[in-house]
Predict the 3D structure of the following.
Amino acid sequence: FYVSTSPTQTAPNDRKAPNIVVAKVADVAETQPGGIITYTIYYNNTGDGNAKEVWINDTLPDGVTFQSSSVPYTAYDGNTYRWYFATVLHDTQNILTITVRVNDSAGDATQLTNVVNLTYKDQLRRPMPASQSSVIVMCRRALITVEKVVDKSIAGYGEILTYTIYYNNTGTGSAGNVWINDTLPAGADFVSASDGGVLDGNVVRWYFTDVSPGVHYVTMQVLVNITQGVLTNWAYLNYTSTYNVKFAESSASASTTVAELGNPMIVLPLALSAGVMIAGRRKMKMKECNRRCENDKKVEG
């Protein structure tokens, strides 16, 4: 308890005063869903008097969940956590850390703004100037939806089809893991796959890590081994954040109609069959013409 060395009658008491201005920092500038952020709050008392009734109120941003703190909190209300210190000694450095986890649903390019407010009093319980500090951590995440195209909408037996599978990352963060599984349809024989695609049974599989924002694709070729029908090829994609948070999977397909004339073994029989049908139609027309001529002659006679 500090007493003035030269008190003035009727004047305010000039006891030594505390001085606290809160400050806050985060250990990262950017993170992703599933990431951990540690906030450090400084409430140093740089004055020469002790502070009383110190309240630190920290409001967490939407998109994060409280995990722990270096000092147990006194109370909380929603996403605001409160700490109370009866006395903070003069000329002391004081810190409080808070650890949070970024929610799986946190959006891409979201600013996670954390705000802390501090109030306190001097030793005579007179309110001292309040202070506030904030820090922003940017949330980044990948956004990937698989798309698929084929180079031929109509093909024949024995032709090669080339599929292109796009896994473009339209987000601002990298994907930690990306899996693409392509199931071959009945009637298609595997030929090749780019970028390390591996045939496993009737499924071609790709696996990539650290997929940055931008355009990405793989290709696959198959041989048509049916004479007619529709080949529909499906690709399925799963991916995660760099902290292994699973995001929504997606799928896409591409179809090719296989024409019956594509099989050389049946082209000739079909052609001959078509010729027979045409010849038959011509004979029928000739008979009909002859019949009409005979009828005309009878009428004239």
Notes: The first strand starts at residue 23 and ends at 26. The two ends are 147 Å apart (CA to CA). Helices lie at 264-300. Residues 23-139 form a domain with the Immunoglobulin-like fold (CATH 2.60.40.740).
